[in-house]
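Support request, please re-run this one:
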Amino acid sequence: MKAKTKTLIEMRNDAADIFYDGIKAVDPSAAIGKYCKLKNNQFIAGSRTYDLSRFKRVFVIGAGKATAPMASAIEGLLGNIVSGGAINVKYGYREQLRRIKLIEAGHPIPDKNGQIGANYIFNIAHSATEDDLVICLISGGGSALLPLPAPGLSLQDKQDAIRQFLSCGATIHEINTIRKHVSLIKGGQLARTAYPATLVSLLLSDVVGDDVDVIASGPTVPDSSTFEDCMNIIEKYDIQDKLPKTIISRIKSGISGQIPETPKSGDPIFQKTHNFITGSNIDAVIAGKQKAESLGYNALILSSLIEGDTTQVAQVHSAIAKEILKTGNPVPPPACILSGGETTVKLVGKGLGGRNQEFALASAIEIEGYENIVILSAGTDGTDGPTDAAGAISDTHTLKKATAVGVNAVHSLMDNDSYHFFKAIGDLFITGPTNTNVMDLRLLLVN
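Re-run finished. Output below.
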């Protein structure tokens, strides 16, 4: 039987439904519920069991956009067993907690609140003894939300450095390499602080490849990067003269051996530290695929590991959509192509936007003249760049709508002004805080 042809409005509604099913699959509270159990005074995390009678105190610490519901789930599981703790979350990403202090702080640029909270968390970890259990909850955004500058550096130094790296097109792996080496808490240093306590770290991944030493800059994980790597990254993007002199001085001191490296694999401090990934981008992508199939689409997962320049990635995705219309490959219409990961934007203009809005805008330009294509790109955390939108939705009529209201797609793309472009035509995709974060979800529907 021939599949029923859907209108663009129906396809756009389908795209939103597919996205929200992806979000449900990475609900942080549900992830903790699936991964952690309490049975006969035994705390079970994944394949490991911890006898709670062995511990005098149980602390809960952590940071990230999804950490509040994770903490709420741990409180619900352990109740009064939790002695106390603290977490840092992005403003607005909160839950009602009973025994764990919640501090709202700045993201993606760290702020004073974040530093206060990071110091509080650091002190809790430092107070833990070998008779204590520390449960650390980490999710995307944790890097910005745990700003504890290394000696000789100020919060302003870190803020200025992060702004440079966010605007030059550096990947999250590269940015977090720098973060680890200008911090007192990242790159395994939180584990060093908590030692000799038993440390259980539960992570919701927001990085391509789920590298545990990159998620939130790996505060509880052996660091595979070095000061030498930091300098190579700085030279790659030619920003040495744009960074605070104190940052450059620290990295050079580390290279010369005047400052000790971050703790590496094999360091005895990690003998009592166990790291577990409770959810990641592929979970959201698979759930989206299942929803798309239930709506009648032939669904295909392209990859959950996509990174690189946003405009170039948009060109490739758009080419696949056009191929489906022309030849029915790689899947025949009605088709849904899904991908995840995290692209980067090199800022050359003065506009406002984010990588997902820019992806949707670049895609709209590529599919002009074609019919029956809908593209949705959005951050699973509900945030895209410094805007109130998660992303944007575009289709084969986007450029016509823009012309009708007097905005130019090419000019907006060149000025990195995707936010105002989509606001003008009413196609921003706004979800509000989702309280989760596993990078981005991109959907191409072809009918």
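The chain is about 40% helix and 20% strand. The chain has two domains: 8-22+282-446, 27-148+183-225+262-279.
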